[in-house]
UniProtKB/TrEMBL annotation:
Organism: Equus caballus
Known EC number: 1.3.1.93
The reaction(s) this protein catalyses: (2E,8Z,11Z,14Z)-eicosatetraenoyl-CoA + NADPH + H(+) = (8Z,11Z,14Z)-eicosatrienoyl-CoA + NADP(+); a very-long-chain 2,3-saturated fatty acyl-CoA + NADP(+) = a very-long-chain (2E)-enoyl-CoA + NADPH + H(+); (2E,7Z,10Z,13Z,16Z)-docosapentaenoyl-CoA + NADPH + H(+) = (7Z,10Z,13Z,16Z)-docosatetraenoyl-CoA + NADP(+); octadecanoyl-CoA + NADP(+) = (2E)-octadecenoyl-CoA + NADPH + H(+)
One GO process term, biological-process aspect: sphingolipid metabolic process
The protein's name in its UniProt record: Very-long-chain enoyl-CoA reductase
Membrane spanning stretches: 102-124, 213-232, 273-298
Chain ranges of the TECR-like N-terminal domain: 22-97
Protein's gene: TECR
Record membrane topology: Multi-pass membrane protein
Main function: Involved in both the production of very long-chain fatty acids for sphingolipid synthesis and the degradation of the sphingosine moiety in sphingolipids through the sphingosine 1-phosphate metabolic pathway. Catalyzes the last of the four reactions of the long-chain fatty acids elongation cycle. This endoplasmic reticulum-bound enzymatic process, allows the addition of 2 carbons to the chain of long- and very long-chain fatty acids/VLCFAs per cycle.
Cellular component terms (Gene Ontology): endoplasmic reticulum membrane
Assigned keywords, A-Z: Acetylation, Endoplasmic reticulum, Fatty acid biosynthesis, Fatty acid metabolism, Lipid biosynthesis, Lipid metabolism, Membrane, NADP, Oxidoreductase, Phosphoprotein, Sphingolipid metabolism, Transmembrane, Transmembrane helix
Gene Ontology MF, one: very-long-chain enoyl-CoA reductase activity
Protein origin, superkingdom: Eukaryota
Length: 325
């Protein structure tokens, strides 16, 4: 017998009379019993339990389910096996609704197609932006055209990477996030494009030299970012959730792995710094700062995850900036 409040122990052995689990699923907030599953195989995964739960509650399809051992605990992974969890023959799982979900591919395509289209509206000076006298006119400054090429290249690259390079560990994300993300990307794209393509825009202070230096930074960082994405893709076979320590390859752009855990973010920030220097535009600088802040948060989270998961993780690496951060 187990006393009140005592944690249930795993069930390591099975004999002829004990072949299955009973699984009860409670609402994590109200503790209301939502579902009782009888005769669940010991080898059943959380993903399979979610599918069984969906049969009685079709409004909660598997992607929007979070099942956990404790109402306030972490979500169990889909690949977790029931018999390996710290539960007894009657397992209690707690359910939280993650809300309506949308695929990561759809999210990324929407996020990145918006800035590409919006920027071009300002570049071609469509009506009702700068006044009738400027409708469909062209800037006389070379840097404006170069900035449009760089901005468009960046987002076309992102779209192609989403379709052909990235492999996502999670299939979906909450639908509500797409509105927040699109507001960020689309809003900043419009703000930057308005000033860079404005008829009164003035070129950078140091002229062609400043533009050439910034262009070199942008191109190098774009190549570096793509190289890191390819290296990360090769670490995870298609259709799997395998996680490995990323190491430098023969590609020199990947050598940054020697010093940071997330060089893709390092190169991404570098690209926008180059774009900011090229255009000498305050909204671009602010976008770079906000992006750096968010990517630093992501990089620190991934760095902590690597350290926790891999005991032999290289000790010299920092999350995003070598030797500093």
């Amino acid at each position: 017998m187990k006393g009140p409040g005592r944690q249930q122990e795993p069930w390591p052995l099975f004999d002829g009379a004990m072949k299955h689990y009973e699984v009860e699923i409670l609402d994590a907030k109200t503790r209301e019993k939502l579902c009782f599953l009888d005769k669940v195989e010991p080898q059943a995964t959380i993903a399979e339990i979610k599918n069984l739960f969906t049969k009685s509650h079709p409004q909660w399809y598997p992607a929007r389910q979070s099942l956990r051992l404790d109402p306030k605990g972490k979500s169990l992974k889909d690949e977790d096996v029931l018999q390996k969890l710290p539960v007894g023959t009657t397992a209690t799982l707690y359910f939280r609704d993650l809300g309506a979900q949308i695929s990561w591919v759809t999210v990324f395509l929407t996020e990145y197609a918006g800035p590409l289209f919006i920027y071009l509206l300002f570049y071609f000076r469509v009506p009702f932006i700068y006044g009738h006298r400027y409708d469909f006119t062209s800037s006389r400054h070379t840097v404006v055209h170069l900035a449009c090429i760089c901005h468009s290249f960046h987002y076309v690259k992102r779209l192609l990477e989403t379709l052909f390079v990235h492999r996502f560990s999670h299939g979906t994300m909450p639908l509500r996030n797409i509105f927040k993300n699109c507001t960020y990307y689309w809003g900043f794209a419009a703000w930057m494009a308005y000033y860079i393509n404005h008829p009164l825009y003035t070129p950078p202070t140091y002229g062609a030299q400043q533009v050439k230096l910034a262009l070199a930074i942008f191109v190098i960082c774009q190549l570096g970012n793509f190289s890191i994405h390819m290296a990360l893709r090769d670490l995870r076979p298609a259709g799997s959730k395998t996680r490995k320590i990323p190491y430098p390859t023969k590609n020199p752009f990947t050598w940054l792995f020697l010093l940071v855990s997330c060089p893709n973010y390092t190169y991404e920030v570098g690209s926008w710094i180059g774009f900011a220097i090229m255009t000498q535009c305050l909204p671009v600088a602010l976008f770079s700062l906000v992006g750096f802040t968010q990517m630093t948060i992501w990089a620190k989270g991934k760095h902590r995850s690597y350290l926790k998961e891999f005991r032999d993780y290289p000790p010299l690496r920092m999350p995003i900036i070598p030797f500093l951060l």
